[in-house]
Design a protein that fits this description.
Protein name: Sulfotransferase
Largest sheet: 2 strands, parallel
Strand order of the largest sheet: 1-2
CATH class: Alpha Beta
Enzyme class: transferase
Distance between the termini: 71 Å
CATH architecture: 3-Layer(aba) Sandwich
InterPro entries: P-loop_NTPase, Sulfotransferase_dom
Shape: globular
Radius of gyration: 20 Å
Structural class: mainly alpha
Family: Belongs to the sulfotransferase 1 family.
Oligomer: single chain
Number of strands: 2
Number of domains: 1
CATH topology: Rossmann fold
Order of helices and strands: EHHHEHHHHHH
Strand content: 5-15%
EC number: 2.8.2.-
Number of helices: 9
Length: about 180
C-alpha cells in the first residue's frame, strides 16, 4: 500500500479590536505609567516627557504612526477601530459594536452586566485588572495607580499653554492627509 499525501490548507482567522485615544491623554497616561512601572526607564520630568512623546521616543514608537497605520489597515483587514472617548460616552453602544464585530448577540441582561463589570470603577477595584497583585518592585502603585482616572481631558491638568500649542502643531502635522480625528 502506498502512503497518501494529504495537503491541508490552513487559514488563520483573526479579529483585531484597536482602541485609540486622543494623544494628549495618552501622553499623560503613559507618563504616569512610566513613573510607576519599575521595568521602564525613569521618565524624568513632565516637561521633557512631552517632547519625548512628540518626537516618538516611546516604547511603542510614534503615536501618530501607530494610530494611522491601524486606521489604514482597517480597510484591508478584520479590524474594529474604536475610540476610548466613545467608550466613555456610551459604553453600551460600543459593547454592541464589539459584539456585532465578533458575530455575537447579547441579551439586555448580559449587556447590563458587561457594562457593570467593564466600567472603570469596577475594573479599578478588581485586582485582576488593576494589577495590585503585582509586586511593587515591578509596578510601584504608591507612585501612581495602574488604573488612575479613566477620564477624557486630564491632559488639561498637566499641559502648560506652551506645551499645548506645541502639541497642537504636532497633532495637526500628524493628522494631515488623513480623515482620522480625535476628540479632546
Amino acid at each position: 500500500m502506498r502512503p497518501t499525501l494529504i495537503f491541508v490548507r490552513c487559514v488563520v482567522f483573526y479579529q483585531i479590536i484597536y482602541v485609540a485615544r486622543n494623544p494628549k491623554d495618552v501622553a499623560v497616561s503613559f507618563y504616569h505609567f512610566d513613573k510607576m512601572n519599575q521595568l521602564h526607564p525613569e521618565p524624568g520630568p513632565w516637561e521633557g516627557y512631552v517632547d519625548k512623546f512628540i518626537q516618538g521616543n516611546m516604547g511603542f514608537g510614534s503615536w501618530g504612526t501607530h494610530v494611522k497605520e491601524f486606521w489604514a489597515l482597517k480597510q484591508e483587514r478584520n479590524i474594529l477601530y474604536m475610540f476610548y472617548e466613545d467608550m466613555l460616552e456610551d459604553p453600551k453602544r460600543e459593547i454592541r459594536k464589539v459584539m456585532r464585530f465578533l458575530g455575537k448577540d447579547l441579551s439586555d441582561d448580559v449587556l447590563e452586566k458587561t457594562c457593570l463589570h467593564t466600567s472603570f470603577k469596577a475594573m479599578k477595584e478588581n485586582p485582576v485588572t488593576n494589577y495590585t497583585a503585582i509586586d511593587s518592585s515591578i509596578m510601584n502603585q504608591s507612585v501612581s495607580p495602574f488604573m488612575r482616572k479613566g477620564i477624557c481631558g486630564d491632559w488639561k491638568n498637566h499641559f502648560t499653554v506652551a506645551q499645548n500649542e506645541r502639541f497642537d502643531e504636532y497633532y495637526q502635522k500628524e493628522m494631515s492627509g488623513t480623515d482620522l480625528s480625535f476628540r479632546f
